[in-house]
Each structure stands twice: as structure tokens, then as C-alpha cells.
Amino acid sequence: MSGRAKVLLIGFSLLASVASAAPGFDYKDYDDELMRDLEKTIKYFEPDITAQNADAAREDAAVLADGFRYTEDYFNKKGGAQDAVEISRKGSKLISQINDYIGKSDFDQAAAAARDATAVCKSCHDIYKPRLAR
Ligand code: HEC
What we know:
This protein is an all-alpha fold. The chain has five helices and no strands. It has one domain: Four Helix Bundle (Hemerythrin (Met), subunit A) (Up-down Bundle), CATH 1.20.120. Heme C (HEC) binds next to helix 2, helix 3, helix 4 and helix 5.
């Protein structure tokens, strides 16, 4: 096989694995309520940090940490969704780093990490959230 054909093949199998990473899960048992809570919370998260409101920011962080723990657990049980499990762990790790920054009153670093947390939500939705749902 030529090098080019190999590259193409690898490309296709990557595409195929991404496509199959979004299996036709039905999310009947999924906690949409919690997701909406996360959505509300993450909107206040960075502003709370920037306002140096450590107590509020810690409360937000606790809600978000619960959320990432939930998604890790959910997709772990579901099986065949290792990306979602990894993404959730990344989110949890980020939240604990943010708590550390807040503890050190390093609100700049905390705010930057809070923006990354939003990207973590999105990275899971890009793969796992049904695009046309609702
Ligand atoms: C590991 C995967 C994953 C992570 C992480 C994740 N979500 Fe979701 N989220 C989903 C899936 C899957 C759905 C679709 C569930 C369904 O269709 O019932 C969803 C749905 C939602 C919805 C729509 C709920 C509704 O009313 O139907 C919102 C809002 C949302 N997520 C916000 C967030 C926010 C904010 C974060 C980050 C703090 C986040 N999500 C993190 C997987 C994830």
C-alpha cells in the first residue's frame, strides 16, 4: 500500500471511530435537570470568580463537580463511551484545580480555567449530545 493510501485509510478509520463514538444512545435515563443546573451555574461561574466572590465560586464549583461526577458515572455504566468518561474526568480535574486557585486567591488563573470548563462541556456535547434533540 502506498503511503498516501495508508494515510487515507487511517483518516477513514478515525472518522469511523468518531462516528461510532456517538452511538444511538437513548438518553431516557439521563438527568437533563442536572444539565440545566450546570448550564445555569456555569454562566455565573466565571463572573463570580472575576468578582473575587470566593464563596459563590466555590458553590458553583461544587455543583459543576457533581455534574462531571454524574456524567463520568453515567457513561461508565453505559459502556462503549470511553471518550465521555475521559472528558468528564478532565472536567473534574479542572474544577479541583479551580478550587485550588480560589484557595490561593489566584482569581486570574481560576477564571482562565473556568473558561476551559465551558469547553469541556462542549467537547462532550459535540460527540455525545444528539444534535437535533429538542
Ligand atoms: C461527558 C458528557 C457530557 C458532559 C461533560 C456535559 N454534558 Fe451536557 N449533555 C450531555 C448529553 C449526552 C446531553 C443530551 C441528553 C439528552 O438528550 O437527554 C446533554 C445535554 C445538556 C443540556 C440540555 C438539557 C436539556 O434540557 O435537554 C444542557 C443545557 C447541558 N447538557 C449543559 C452542560 C453543561 C453546562 C456542562 C458542563 C458543565 C455539560 N452539559 C457537560 C453530555 C454531557
